[in-house]
Write a structure and sequence with these properties.
Elements (H helix, E strand, L loop, with lengths): L13 H32 L3 H7 L2 H33 L3 H12 L6 H12 L4 H10 L3 H8 L2 H25 L4 H8 L4 H12 L1 H17 L2 H7 L6 H10 L5 H28 L1
């Protein structure tokens, strides 16, 4: 598209913008709204039976609590480590930074089964990390390996592929951050920690909140890694939904309602993160 005499790009009309956006809108319609409409219709087919059954179910409330704890814990771990990694990457030159970003992003290409199997090989009963700790520090391998199959272990495993998401979100912000503010504060006698807490972190609150909400929503809604690692032994909402879907005699209205509740929960978490980030 050429430039006009003033040196600026010409404005596109409403029809052109609609045409450019139509492929994305069509995909969004076919792969989000249409499936969501079928699920909603299935949930409403039974009237209020689905929502009443879920609200009266004690396992649902336990799974909801476990899912929220898992999401918050995994997001907190990922945000803390991801921020530290992003700070280090932002100080690198462009080429080594891009190389490290490529390596850090590799876990995003792995399936949940590969991630779970890798952690079993490392931290399971006969895992090499477990055996090394037993040999050199006398750690009992049985309770240590069982921790991986708990909600806290799941949060640790989830952080493996959530940390790259945080790094990818925060690194561009830190690269473009005006470090002259930090240098000025240190020249006036402020310590490095005080400079980070009083100048850097307050300006990073919005992207940090958005990153926290995103990875928390991913952790709450993910099921592949949990299913491969613990089966259905841990009561979280995605595994409840998987059990219902895989059960041929399941109540379809209840299953659809649980799916909508889980989708609404993840959407709510991300919406609150976006709202809190913009508010700051």
């Amino acid at each position: 598209m050429g430039q006009n005499r003033a040196g600026t790009l010409p404005r596109t009309g409403a029809g052109t913008r609609a045409m450019l956006a139509s492929p994305g809108l069509l995909l969004f319609l076919l792969f989000f709204f249409v499936p969501l409409g079928f699920v909603l219709a299935e949930a409403l087919a039974g009237g209020t039976h689905g929502i009443r059954t879920i609200l009266a179910s004690r396992p649902f409330w336990t799974g909801l609590l476990n899912s929220l704890v898992l999401g918050v814990l995994a997001a907190a771990i990922s945000l803390g480590i991801g921020l530290a990694v992003a700070l280090r990457l932002a100080r690198m030159a462009e080429r080594p930074r891009l190389a490290w970003q490529f390596l850090i992003a590799l876990p995003l290409t792995f399936s949940g089964l590969i991630v779970a199997y890798g952690f079993i090989l490392a931290f399971g009963r006969a895992g090499f990390v477990t055996l090394l700790l037993e040999r050199f520090f006398g750690v009992d391998p049985v309770p240590f390996s069982q921790a991986v199959y708990s909600p806290y272990g799941l949060a640790f495993v989830y952080a493996y592929y959530l940390i790259p998401r945080v790094v990818m979100m925060l690194t561009p912000v830190l690269v473009n951050f005006d470090t002259a503010q930090l240098a000025a504060a240190e020249s006036l006698g402020a310590s490095r920690l005080r400079t980070l807490c009083d100048i850097l972190l307050p300006q990073l609150k919005a992207p940090m909140i958005s990153a926290f909400a995103l990875v928390a929503a991913v952790a709450i809604g993910a099921y592949g890694t949990a299913l491969a690692l613990v089966g259905t032994q841990v009561n979280i909402l995605p595994l409840q939904l998987f059990t219902m879907v895989s059960d041929a005699g399941s109540d379809f209205a209840v299953t659809a309602t649980l799916g909508l509740v889980l989708a609404a929960l993840c959407t709510l978490v991300m919406g609150l993160g976006e709202w809190a980030g913009k508010g700051r």
